[in-house]
Structures are given as structure tokens and as C-alpha cells.
Amino acid sequence: MNAKSQTSTFLFGELRTSGFLLFLRRLSVKLGPSVLRDFVKIRVFQGSRKKGSSGRRGEGNERTCLFCEMRRPDLNRIVQQNKTFYVRNDNFPAAPGHVEVVPKRHVESFFELTPRELKDAYALILAARKKIMDEYRPDGFTIGVNEGRAAGRTVDHLHIHLIPRHFGDVEDPRGGIRQAVPNCDPDVWTQKSDGEGHAGSRLLTNVRLSRS
Which active-site residues does the annotation give? Predict the structure, then answer.
């Protein structure tokens, strides 16, 4: 095994066995900041393909996109697939059974999917749900897409999260994905409005004013 392969084996072994921030700290100490910078740039965060790439299935910029490397089991543990999508176990699961439904074609946005891809994505979401129900018996699901960097996307290749949920997994689940944004006080949503239905919009306006 050459030095490059040994380094790669070390990197992903550490990534699987430690928390992300601790993992980066260990890399900086062991390999030096320049190697760490190259790893983060190439392997973790860059998902966008180079200009002129074909966009065919599995043919994004495979040197920079995690999800285009679907044939590498050390990066993508694929559990199901169909013609245009595959299901992988999330490398940092929010809950046991957390998976991602990923297009084989390198595409960044949910809104760029073709009608065929949308159909295949939904079919695979249903198949993944059945598998999760059989194995984990969840009480519910959170289904989500981080559409754009402003929404929290870190890999620029579309991936749809399917996260099994259980009563008691968080203290107060009300609002669900709304907890990702400022207007997320369930007590305000459920209180009696001012007679004109503006309680929630008033809170959001106040949040925007306080940030300006």
C-alpha cells in the first residue's frame, strides 16, 4: 500500500470512529494543516462538478463528489437502488436507520430532477420506508432536503434525508423541521391569534427586525 492509500485509509478510519470536530482536530495534529485543508476541500465539502461534466449517472466529478463515488463502499454504504437513485446509510446518522436517497446523476437541486427521476425517487423513498419500518418500528419520519447552502447543504449533490423518529427522541418535537429557522416557538403557533390571524407573522416580522 503506497503512502497516499495509507493516508486515505487513516482518514476515513478516523472519520468513522470519532466525532467530526474531534476528527478534524486529530488530523491537524497528526498530518499537519496543509493535508487537513486538502482533505476537507477534496473529500468532504466539495460536491459541485467541474464545468462541462456530463451529468450522466455516476459521472459527476468523481474526485470531488462524495455521492458520485457510489461504487466505493468505504464512502457509501448502499442498501437499495433503482435505475436512477440509490439509498445509502447516512455516515453521521441523526437516528438509527437514518438514510439518504441520492440520484445517480450528479445534480445539485431537487428542482432540477426529471419527471422520471422524481418518480424513481418517490418509489425508493417508499421502499426505504418499508425497510426502516421493518427494522426500527419508528413512530414517524422526518423527510428533508437542504436545498442550497443557505439551507445548510454541505455536499453539492442532491440527497433526500429519511430519518426515523420516535416519541421521546427530543424533548419537544412540535414544529419538526421548523426548528431549523428562527420562527419556531410552538407556543406562539398554538396560542389564540389577535383576531386577524397575525400572531405567527408578527413574530416572524419581529425576528427579521431584530436581525437587521
Answer: 159
